[in-house]
Amino acid sequence: MDEEYDVIVLGTGLTECILSGLLSVDGKKVLHMDRNDYYGGDSASLNLTQLYRKFRQDQTPPAELGRDRDYAVDLIPKFIIASGELTRILVHTDVIRYLEFKQISGSYVYRDGKISKVPSTEMEAVKSPLMGLFEKRRAKKFFEFLQGWKDEDPSTHQGINLDKDNMKTVYEKFGLEPGTQDFIGHAMALYLDDSYKTKPAREAYERIVLYTSSMARYGKSPYIYPLYGLGELPQAFARLSAIYGGTYMLDKPIDEIITDAEGKFVGVRSGEETVKAKQVIGDPSYFGAGQSTEDGKVRVVEEGKVVRAICILKHPIPGTDDADSAQIIIPQNQVGRKNDIYIAMVSSTHNVCAKDVYIAIVSTIVETDRPEQEIAPGLQLLGTIYDKFVSVSPLFTPTTTGETDNIFITRSYDATSHFETVVDEVHNVWKRVTGKDLVLKKREVEVEA
């Protein structure tokens, strides 16, 4: 391993794989290493045996669940917003040709003890139990205002300044009830909590328009999902990197991150071999996350931890019209919490489990010392649970930007059930590593030999 690289990437989570693919396309010489023998790191999809081995080392899966190869269970469930930034990256890099997608059947919100579909058509909106008749009229005016907004045309602004007025002011202008604000802010703008209401309305406006345009694209819901599970995404970006000369090494223990006397990154040691590079990018687990470290390159973020329960069901989620897939958001104030609870459900339609089996994953940010109890409102919506695997993962963030030591560490995956925060992180790390904004240019499509 005498070669020197521009960048070494550690870990094959989605964030790292997107970055290594984009850096390779940008002409950088990239070496990508992972201690695991599979792609995906924390965002991998596991077969049935791997799933049971990860959570219960001595237990083999029940035979009635079917064949190992029928399963690809996501450790961290997330859906792709049809018109979102990840879709743009997939299209612009042409990674989309390695993947097949299927739509998620419905997006639901929990309110007053039951779940209701977030309307995807005007007809659904008219029938929706989420709002009374007069509230529907007010909401219609609110959405027409958002859809009609043109920055350059003050006559569309109705006296509102999106860059100065906060979202609370906008809601009040249209007289929207707290429950309506809830489902707009949490099920459409996809905020984790209510702190967005006191910030300028521009970002919320953009998020709601993204949601509604994604909904319009396919109809039933704004979300799409890759066949065979989310583990397909990192692999697809790994292929992109390889086409542009990136080198991959799986099952490679990382024994030491080597720095010089000034603390700047020099290289990585694996066993007797050392490989050098100008920069390193990696997930927090390669930089002392979970151990006590002297230099403290990562710390646990304030919210601390995410609790996730992977649940195997033998039936669709009650109240979803037997949907083969769904997202359900439980807004925090519906259950007296600070953070929303997310449920993501997929099935054999997405080639991730055997026929007549459904995989539902419930997650939220931990607020007490009894995490499993915190997701109880979500678990109760699932009906009878055949089996469940609960994990609590700390959320890590880097303590430095990496610009002084050339060590660029990514953030842990949050509790959201979509990829927009992951893509924000890609943009953030790209800017730190290259010193420039990530601009997605159309490129000539290269055909694999």
Automatic annotation (TrEMBL):
Keyword GTP-binding: no
Keyword Iron-sulfur: no
GO molecular function: GTPase activator activity; Rab GDP-dissociation inhibitor activity
Annotated InterPro entries: FAD/NAD-bd_sf, GDP_dissociation_inhibitor, RabGDI
Superkingdom of origin organism: Eukaryota
GO terms classed as biological process: protein transport; small GTPase-mediated signal transduction; vesicle-mediated transport
Any one GO cellular component localisation term in the record: cytoplasm
Key words of the record: GTPase activation
Protein family (similarity comment): Belongs to the Rab GDI family.
Protein name from the UniProt record: Rab GDP dissociation inhibitor
Organism: Obba rivulosa
